[in-house]
Amino acid sequence: MPPSPDQKPLDLSLVTICFNNADIIGRMLDSVEGLVGEIVAVDSGSTDGTIDILRERGASIVHQPWLGYVGQKKRAVKLARKTWILQLDTDEIVQPDLARSIRRLLESKTDGLAAARLRRVVWYRGEPLRHAWQPEWRTRLVRTRTLEVGTAVWGGREPHDQLHVSKNAGRVVDLDGVLRHDSFETFDNHLGVQLRLARRAAQSMEEDGKPASIARLVVSPLTAFGKQIIGKKAYRDGRAGWLAAGTAAAGALMKHMMRLERAILADEKAGETVETSPAEPMSYTSGTGRPGPSVPAAASEPPVSPTSYSTQEVFVTSDQSDVPQDAETTEETAQPEAAAETGDEQPKKKKKRRRRRKKKSESKAAEVESSDESGDADIDIDDADDDRSGREKLKAVMPVSDEARKHVFNTETTFAELGLNDKLLKALDDHGWTHPTKIQAQLVPIAVTGKDVLGQAKTGSGKTAAFGLPVLHQAEKGVPFQALILAPTRELAIQIRDDLEELAKHTKLKVVPVYGGQKIHTQAKKLEKGPEIIVGTPGRVMDMNNRGLLPLDKIRFAVLDEVDRMFDIGFRDDIKRILGMTPKKKQTIFVSATLSEEIERLARQHMTDPERIEAAGGSLTVEMVKQHHISVQPWDKRRMLHHLLTHEEPDLTIVFCRMKRTVDMLAKYLDRKEIKTIALHGDLTQGQRNQAMRDFRHGELNVLLASDLAARGLDVDGISHVVNYDLPDDPDLYVHRIGRTARAGREGIAWSLVTPEQGNLLTQIENLINAEIPLKDYPEFDARVEPPENWKPEPQPGFQPVVVEGVEAKGSRYEQRQAPVTEKLSKEELEQKFPGGVVPKKPPKRSMGGRVRTGRGKR
What we know:
Radius of gyration: 32 Å
Structural class: alpha/beta
Low-confidence stretches: 130-135, 273-399
């Protein structure tokens, strides 16, 4: 329905999910033209032109591996930025009468209104059917705030298509007009749709850990058929109704046939690759822990998306298991063999306890892809630590404002002009990227020639792709250990691995991360297969090299991300040692957002005539970040943070603290204030750190309390606010902290809580970034002039000297001794203090310094 000249688009976001829907999505988009102000689509790997249609309409696109219907729709609505959301499937058309009703509703007074239901009618060959596969009324128009606070959720017998709104959220009204479901053009057409949906439903069952069942193969189609014919009276539509019921039954049948087929393939594969012991037969458990076949993705079944993951795995409890085990389990698994030799039976209690521990570790990998012989990714159960499960692999292609184009992107060139090969260009095109960022446009053409490069660019400007694309362009398939990429933190190493895998998906190059916190055996198995690219942290890279698992003498490309952090005091010796073991003839690429003269001097010692590229230009911080500082007394900092989180209502927020104890303290405080948070710092286990990042990425909790562990390189979609609860002692860290928001041309806000004693530190930060950080005042905040009685100053980082009262302080024995003062002593005191009258005028030339020889160590 084309809009009239005096009608403007509403404050309304259209959200949809799609996968190869080019034949029908255009009609849906035409029906809402002029009605919606924003289009958001989550795509699961379309290759038929669906993406091109969406781009022509100016849609915001997110490429997301299939997470199930509910997961995809949750992901879609989180990206909406308008006040209202209209959720439609690609085969649904808003009729003109319904469009007019939506416009009248949203242009009227909507206070107290939470959602609206739309009347959905199924059509066959241009005629409406009197029945429907799903309930006739759908809650599809909902206020965004209602979804954000959780008062509107998907649920019911068909949760992917029923949005239930809590009574406490407000009124829900029914709109006049028709929402036309129009994909059932012919039986052949609709059967194809049902089979495609069956494939997705089978994958969702795998993710939920539901085992394949012959009973379901029989009962489910009959239930689906009876639901249409009897429950919804499809027989009243004559032959069309029977056809509709038949397609529903066929879809249900195909879904469970796929599940059984994958179970058979899993059994055959397990029988080929795992030897069983006669004393202990091989058994399987499903993801739920109940007996039954466990099913990986079928090798013959094409995935829904190039980056989708199957969530099943084969778990073997025999002694010849391929599952990596640590020292504890290795010792225990050796005992049954010893028992067999001596004739003694292994105690059952200990055996069960070992199995429980194994099942516990298996449950952590419920969302990890099972590796197959033909697959490119060799993933085992410990890859749950890699934060892979459910993480969106491709970044959102959001409409870029003119301001962002000016500061971030180089619109005068394209990736095709940078000298990259066709496979990389295809991956970039799949993501929807056409124009490179400024650092990419400058660094990539030089790096692809093999020249050493030292690059500096603002945070969020695409440095990972800037160094990753040249490495992938020059790397050769089948040559192991030819590229080494070092990162300062585990989380950043995992993120770089994810980004490079996406860019390399058409090149078949393998990227393996090595970092602390994950089992050595897990990473050793991957390194044994000779991956081309290694991404790691310095400590684990040296460990693997010492074990003989990671040779460094064949490295052709050495990359240091966050090079200023890599060459500081903590990492300097490790980096020198690692680079010293690599060949002198290699290409080095060092990048960072901040680069001091000292760091540049150290970096150049490991490079050969490097090209210096600086794409920062003026301020080191991104122009799209709105920065403010808030003056507050130390005793009011917690209250001010609570005031910001409750009054400003930020969407996705990171709160940075200097110390780990402050992170934990704030987490407890905000929990008492009923603000749910996630804590992230170095004292957490790797599993806890990955879970924190996973929850934050998926938006399950909106506030992340973090030490500076999260300040380096992490890219999480949708971070709207960064709060510096403590100003960093190093002004460079401020740049990296606020760079977590306003990434790739998006906008963001950064607040800093500044106490009166930190005025000089704020000035140093302003001098570094070459910009003023204005004051933001909150008159409504009840600031306290005097500290409360129970307030204690916050502990300062570093070593705190211990003061012992009541004991005379003595100087250090290593301090230079001074000659005694004798002018004020009487003659009697001199006689008593210095018998013989000899008064020393200076300390002895040599002093034992309190060290004496002992007989320790002598035999």
